[in-house]
Amino acid sequence: LSGGRQAARKRPSMLSFDEIGGQERAKQELMEALEFLIRPDEIARFGIRPLKGILLTGPPGTGKTLLAKAAAHHTDSVFVAASGSEFVEMYVGVGASRIRDLFREARQKAQKTGKNSAVIFIDEIDVIGGRRDGGQHREYDQTLNQLLTEMDGIQTNESPRILLIAATNRKDTLDSALLRPGRFDRHIAVDLPDKKGRKHILSIHAAGKPLGKTADLDKVAEETFGFSGAQLESVLNEAAIYAMREESECIEMHHLTMAIDKVMMGEKTDREATK
Ligand code: ATP
């Protein structure tokens, strides 16, 4: 298979929890929460309030989107995704109708594929779910109200069942209406990985890359304190580019060291630019 065909075969929505490095606690908590989707009869027998929304909180690039995709895969659900910023429009009402479309799309996609459930993922939920402040952002209010209406309308016995997963790195700014019981009332922290997690993420992204004898991923994990999963993926990618430029057979330790510096410097200049 060519690279392109291979990428097409490995559909991103079919990602499994095994392909996510570290985040053991988040994975565990998420899988426990997903029981609600997998065992609806028991949930109903015990009279447990159905789970409608899970909020993933944590810094950028830590795998929140990956976790949402894996949740869809784990529960054999269709996956529909949007970002909060897509709902911000000049015209009043457009954001709200996009929310309606998103839920419709999820239901239709599930019906078409014969699945019993759908996971709707909304990244950057803070953009539409920020605290309401007396009518200053009327357009956002309508969008948020529509989201709340859709969530309240989710039925346990409907087919397909709908689960919302939202992500934010600014939980403190969210409107309390979103966090009420029956809405996003299950919160899972997705933090920066520890050394073991970093090693795991590095090995996932090193798979399929030619690593030389000197390449020591343990050492890379040690030297990348504070790096996110996305940054660790960049380290391996940059190291591969350095190796290729040098016409080296494999990725060696000095390529990795240069890559760590580059990703760290990139981070610094990004931060300085946003000061
Ligand atoms: P954002 O808040 O910026 O949307 P996010 O938390 O949703 O970020 P992802 O989109 O899930 O982050 O991750 C971005 C990329 O970083 C992934 O496609 C993957 O390559 C890499 N990555 C991040 N975390 C992990 C992880 N735990 N394991 C493996 N790869 C990871």
UniProtKB/TrEMBL annotation:
Enzyme Commission code(s) on record: 3.4.24.-
Name of the protein in its database record: ATP-dependent metallopeptidase HflB
Occurrences of domain AAA+ ATPase (ranges): 50-194
Major localization class: membrane
Family the entry assigns: Belongs to the AAA ATPase family. In the C-terminal section; belongs to the peptidase M41 family.
Annotated compartments: Membrane
Keywords tagged on the record: ATP-binding, Hydrolase, Membrane, Nucleotide-binding, Protease, Transmembrane, Transmembrane helix
Organism: Thermobacillus xylanilyticus
GO MF annotation, one: hydrolase activity
